[in-house]
Amino acid sequence: MPDVVLRKLITSTEEIFHEGGPVPATSLRRAAVLAVIENPFAGRYEPDIQGFMEDLKPLGLKMAQRLIDVLGGADQIEGYGKGAMIGEAGELEHGALWHAPGGYAMRQLLDHSNAIVPSTKKVTGVGGRLDVPITHINASYVRSHFDSMEVGANDTPRANEMVLVLVMSTGARIHNRAGGLAAAEIKGEDGLR
Amino acid sequence: MSAKIRKIAVTVEETHREIGRVINPPTRKAVAVAVIENPFAGAYQEDLTVLMDFGAELGALLGQKCVAALGIAPADAQSYGKSAMVGENGELEHAAAILHPKLGAPLRAAVEKGAALVASSKKMGSPGQILDVPLGHKDAAYVRSHFDGIEVRLNDAPRANEIMVAVAVTDSGRPLPRVGGLTHEDAKGEDGLR
Predict the structure, then answer these.
(1) A28-185, superfamily in CATH?
(2) Is A6 on the interface with B (CB under 8 A)?
(3) Which end of chain A has fewer beta carbons closer than 10 Å to its terminal beta carbon, N or C?
(4) Chain B residues with CB inside 8 Å of A153's CB?
């Protein structure tokens, strides 16, 4: 299968102190890492694409480790998500190749990460933006941790590129008060509750 | 009085390839943005001293954030820039008050030296608008390889009563510079120009 040809790596962090309400003792941090790579299948229909998932595994681990590092360690991480943007010479299915290497890279490096990694993907042009969903790493129904992070860059994805994205967060929305299952109440067995 | 910060965002871009060529080591740019409450939103205020003081505070904070995000020694920074985008209840002069009188000195301390003028831009804006931060060499403004820019955008800022303040720092110039002019290596860095 083709090599993973990396053009850019972008790391973004956000630290949120308040959103108009009382300032909590602990701020919320989110981080995203974007890898801009060549789409080896751009410009044609390629029936057999699954081998590229294996090729993406080292990149997934590198990106997940980078997020853990910028957020201060694996024990800080409470939410995650992933996504992909595919340049116009590719197809949506190419973005689906990121599900396994992206998701399992984060789960491999994070303890107690039984929850499915939420995701989104789209075909778009240069400058496209992606709203990457975030949920609790161990129980998908934890309502306080439903969140998202918008990512993108002005020069990506070019037609023959894909932008692969991983996102992690350190906690609940800054003024969360919409009820539902609380992080402190989860069983953490089935990935849901 | 210090700035009331709602959020801080930091982004690092590394370019590993450009138009098929490997960039080794990758060029790297960092931009740090603070979203602050505009204390003068909604009414004309003659004395903008408070915003000038915010500039000093943010020049240090954001400059240090960029240097930390790049993981470099302050002296290894090569170029910098600053920008502000003011939400609709403010005025352009608020950006000027933050950026120009006092932001530069603490930013220069964060990157060491900084003999050159800090390139800047400012605009009025709304949540999700793009702010292009210009970049120029920190010690010699004529270094042509380091004329560049970096875009920042936050989907939720600036709200009407907020100001987005951005500082950008790099440890390198453009990925494949070849339009000549003064080079980083040849710059003296004494007068801020050459």
Answers:
(1) BB2672 (3.30.1330.110)
(2) yes
(3) N
(4) 13, 151
